[in-house]
Write a structure and sequence with these properties.
366 residues; 12 helices; 36% helix; Aminopeptidase; 12-stranded mixed β-sheet; globular; 14 strands; 2 domains; two-stranded antiparallel sheet
């Protein structure tokens, strides 16, 4: 049944909280935040995209599955293709039910003129995306998805094929490798690069700098979709309460920013304890456990094209590690990284990090 009103959207949002109730690895996001993500009047992503959501309901009236189909005009403009997306997929372990959900999303996308269905995207590569197919037995980090292991079989049985794998790395320790420190020091001496951290008193101005850098630093990546100014402002507003200024690092040369790294405390370690996802009284638990977060989430690290190959990334890696340790987070998850991004994967391995989670993006010809 299609979601057509607020009550249906409430059911759509609520299903995972029941579906994963007994799974200790699933991290309940705040329901309020999920509603903001899905609401066209609150999330600027929907200024250039549209979606339709559906629920699968069993004979007893209980929700047993859900899916969304997404038309992302910004992606099609950037990549000159006819790819539509599905996301927010959840289902009991029933192949016929999963097939019906996929068929429903595919029919909507086909009617829009798309020739390929890709996902899961929730709702884009700038949000959480991919299906978890390999896990080390730990909860996902901030802004990364989670699903039951049988979801992989449901996808493959339907005829999805791999489009790309996304890798998440875990690592850390009291000190960054000495080799990285030396590379970074030499790079700074040769290039005249200096580092500084975010000034929270000038938060809006710092966000403006990130706007200028973000799209140029990631423009050639597979699946990349530019963020609009409104989307970056929206994301910054959501993340500002948990930002640690020392973990947002700018690399500058002659007064111009040439690269930056953004890490955050892995807030999922606190959200894990609020199983209902409700603000009250659950937020009190979240705030209590937030004081004990001991892992960082390395979300973004990029250098503008003309300054790549000068080891500026090594400088950013080292300072990120150093500052994370200073704030009681000696471990971190870095990702996601495209499986064929040779330089980034090599750098992660050289730092002593190891792949702990693999997420798969699937395609299906329509």
């Amino acid at each position: 049944m299609p979601v057509t009103d607020g009550r249906g959207l409430d059911r759509f949002i609520a299903f995972p909280y029941d579906h994963y109730r007994h799974d200790p690895l699933w991290v309940p996001q705040l329901r309020r935040d999920v509603r903001i993500l899905l609401s066209p009047d609150k999330n600027p992503f929907w200024e250039h995209a549209e979606a339709q959501y559906w629920l699968a309901v069993g004979p007893d009236g209980r929700t047993v599955g859900r899916i969304g189909a997404i038309k992302n005009d910004m992606h099609n403009k950037e990549h000159h293709d006819r790819v539509g997306f599905y996301g927010f997929f959840e289902s009991i372990n029933d192949r016929s039910l999963a097939n019906a959900l996929f068929d429903t999303a595919a029919a909507w996308l086909r009617a829009k003129g798309f020739d390929t269905m890709r996902g899961p995207m929730n709702p884009s590569t700038n949000d959480d995306c991919g299906l978890l197919i390999k896990n080390d037995g730990t909860p996902p980090s901030l802004m990364m998805p989670y699903n039951f292991s049988y979801y992989e079989a449901l996808h493959e049985h339907y005829g999805f094929t791999k489009a790309k794998d996304l890798l998440a790395y875990d690592g850390g320790g009291a000190e960054a490798p000495e080799r990285i420190l030396k590379i970074g020091q030499r790079a700074m001496e040769r290039s005249g690069v200096t580092l500084r951290t975010l000034n929270k008193k000038r938060f809006d101005d710092e966000v403006e700098l990130i706007k200028k850098l973000y799209n140029s630093a990631w423009e050639k990546n597979w699946g990349f979709v530019p963020l609009t100014d409104a989307e970056i402002d929206h994301l910054a507003k959501q993340l500002k309460p948990i930002v640690v200024p020392d973990l947002v690092i700018f690399a500058e040369r002659a007064g111009e920013v040439v690269g930056f790294a953004v890490s955050l405390p892995d807030f999922n370690l606190a959200l894990l304890h609020n199983r209902s996802g409700r603000m009250f009284p659950g937020i009190l638990k979240v705030l209590w456990y937030a004081r004990k977060i001991n892992r960082a989430r390395v979300m973004l690290l990029g250098v503008i094209p003309e300054f790549r190959g000068r080891a500026i990334d090594a400088v950013l890696y080292h300072r990120t590690w150093e500052n994370s340790v200073k704030h009681g987070m000696p471990r971190g998850e870095a990702g996601w990284i495209l499986e064929d991004n040779i330089s980034m994967n090599k750098a992660a391995l050289q730092l002593g990090f190891r792949v702990t989670k693999t997420y798969r993006v699937y395609d299906k010809t329509l």
